[in-house]
Fold:
Amino acid sequence: MDHHDHHHHHDHGHAHDHGSELSPMDLRVRALESILVEKGYVDPAAIDAIVETYETRVGPRNGARVVARAWSDPTFREWLLRDATAAIASLGFTGRQGEHMVAVENARDEHHMVVCTLCSCYPWTVLGLPPVWYKSAPYRSRAVIDPRGVLAEFGVTLPETTRIRVWDSTAEIRYLVVPMRPEGTDGWSEEALADLVTRDSMIGTGLVLEPGNVAGRGASS
Amino acid sequence: MNGPQDIGGMQGFGPIPIEADEPLFHAAWERRALGLTVAMGASGMWNIDTSRHARESLPPAEYYASSYYEIWTKGVERLVTRLGLVSEAELKAGAALEAPAPIKRVLKASEVEAALKRGSPTDREPSQSARFQVGDAVTTRVMNPVGHTRLPRYARGKSGVVEMVHGAHVFPDTNAHGDGEQPQWLYNVRFSGRELWGEEADADLIVSIDAWESYLEPA
Structure:
């Protein structure tokens, strides 16, 4: 950064020389938090614990494990498609924004895509917090009317013969897409398979990785 | 309400903001906004439907100009002031100026893991049998309630087919306004793209919504 003010203080680890570095939203959230804490409504350590949960423990690797298990174990797959809440809970993934789960499985002739046009409903238990694009007006508005155009922006082109099904999450049911298992992965371990499963493939805006694109993985690894 | 949140089918918002290697948070304040929204949600002073309604009651121009966690923050500000937990003067001052109001519960750090693992299930024991079954033809009601609803505008007055019966769930339209949970049967209903969008829609497209029983009539 080009410093115009030569008197800035180097002892401030966060100092910039353009006045306060705090954005209006930073100030606004700090103010709200300090009021809520001062009044005893919120434990700041609880805020830390909530943030830490989604930064370190709950994310799309959970969903990838679910998908890899479904690819590997026909009984689990059948359970997942029949009662996703229970099947997913058996792997330890339960709770907030995943209380009621439905899994929808892609096939050659059918591709599923999930959106929440009214807010940002997303299966936190298996995918973590949603990315900005999922919560954005462009995605929310167009996913239901022009899903092929949306997929094209993600670089995904499906055959004309593949029907697209869009699931608008208007209630507390959360949808997880089970993508198609790629060819050339016979005998792969669940762990190796999970590495192919991208977050976007479980929302339906992406496809899984091709086995050749994952370094150092192979049969029975 | 026909608020700014109901954007399914709108056009003109531009390209989707896809970011490679997107960070979970784009500023430190977003972490705190997430955490305090979830923590206050556990206070028992409001429910998820009240919270959604607070966000979608922002004036449309403000809603569209606000980032996601900004909308969440403004939603919490509206709720705490409306309930008398925090005054406008306190928000302005950025400090507590008055004695706290009674609050149902304060989520402790030690309770966070269990609370998140538990979540807030919305399924309830049904008080009567379901009116519709899988495969039934239904039509969504034409309605424009001034309060909260989860029937999007693009799917009102449309004919579809019941795809799934999800059981009885808390009804957001009443729950958002302190009128109780009043559980209703919840269905997944599928529509053809052409029913929703006209002849120019992809011939094979299917769009599904989850719809409470009172949103539906037999077709």
